[in-house]
Fold each of these.
Amino acid sequence: MGGLLVAAMGGQALAVTTVVTGLGPAGWVSGDSRADGHVDVNGNNQLVSGRNAVEDGLIADRLEFVNGPPVPSMGTGSVHFETPVNNDKATLENRGVSNNFLTDSFDVEYAWYRAPGGGVAAPAFKIGIDTNEANPVGPKAVDRGEDRFDKILVYEPYQDGAVVTSDNVWTTENINGTTGGFWMVNLTGGSALPGTVLSPLRTLDEWQLLFNSTAGITSATINSIQLGVGSFNANQDSHVDYLTYNVTGAAAPQENTWDFEAATQQPAVPEPVTAGLGVLGLAAIGLVTRRRKS
């Protein structure tokens, strides 16, 4: 479900912050999510929200809006991703975006948290791009939402050259045209672009240049942004606090932030200094009261 929406003018761009407390109206859905051992109606292990109660339960086991962990920088909660075994996958996807990848510029920020025991991976940020080339078809592609786009750019913190060793702390990723390395999944057979490219990593500006300079690529629309944990990341227990996605280009600038929260939010935990001052204040009140009584 959606939550509070706050808008503010920042220059010519309208900055919008939306509180997201579940899958649904705020534009966020369960994307390409999978459960090891599950067999769906098509013989795969895909999970589709709303298809049946079993799959809804398996999605909830892997993708949940919760309070904590302490202390997120925005609000009091986060979206929780969990992939117990290698064949599991958990993806939160927004299919409501529409941006021109050939001409627009992008700034992305998100904060993640990881519990120990899940290796070096951390929640990834992905971009689905619909070019003029063929999209995949078939039941599996439809279940994954991949019938809507044919290229996926993937940013993974540990792949970007950083040593991701920070467990039990919030870490902020900042990505723009010249910072942050992405690899590409190419879903089109016989594409004019390279096939799935794990290396070298390219920045968004570098991918944009490659798309623009490739004969045969005449359009490229971003129609999906995603957060999540991919397959072959067993025992991943991680969270994302918020995502900021800013776009500038020929169209009006967009500044969107989604703050992920539990449906029932806990009161904010006071900072230790503030809490200490509160205790001192109560003690002072008590002292004054005793003096007045004496």
Note: The chain has one domain: 2-293.
Amino acid sequence: MLKLRKKTTAPTKKSKTNPVKSIKTKSRKKNALLEADLYPPVKKLLEKQGYDVKSEIGAADVVARRGDDAPIIVELKTTFSLTLFHQAIARLAVSDTVYIAVFRKSGKAFYKSLRANIKLCRRLGIGLITVHPTTKAAEIHIDPGPYKPRKSAVKSKRLLKEFEQRVGDPNTGGQTSSGLITSYRQNALKCLVALCHNGPMKASNVKDITGVENARNIMSNNHYGWFERVSRGIYALSPAGLSAINSYKDAIEGLQLEET
């Protein structure tokens, strides 16, 4: 009789866990900032100003009252988000005094974001509070209030000037600034075409041919590297300018220039 050989099973490998990584993960979760961590500093800030403060009243994260004053509402989020602003705007239907509160971070990126969001809060009529994640100090950056934007006459004039001077609509809305066909670039292209057709010329002649009042400055400053001065007051195309004739073929055709 044949003896059956017992089937041997290969020993299973025990999964190795990295204790250091595990400790780091637990530590990171333990130290994670939560919305609830914002409440005590914000409450302390408001109580110092004589408010009675309570959390989670209706849809609001924080509600504060002082005597017969209108209620203050504060919406909490660990960081700036579109949802946070949506919530704050919705609370304006309940009170005119609405704040948002986020944790204050370090670094240029946050300070840039903070400046931008202060402007946004000002326009929306809501306040902004930040809380330091370590010291738990709460700081008010802007109070709620009506906003009337100041118009810049200089910026408005610059916008209208660019609109009037630009020939046609050579750009696509939403494209990056690199390669945009501005009125300045169009004027430079006019000078480029004039020199291409006529060879080296005086700046005054380029001005007369193209109708570009600042032709001399455009060629002298040579912002795009298309021109070179061959003698006093006389300009010609540089190698980059010759190349630009083909590169900007569509833009030049859009100018509808007549050969001179």
Note: The two ends are 112 Å apart (CA to CA).
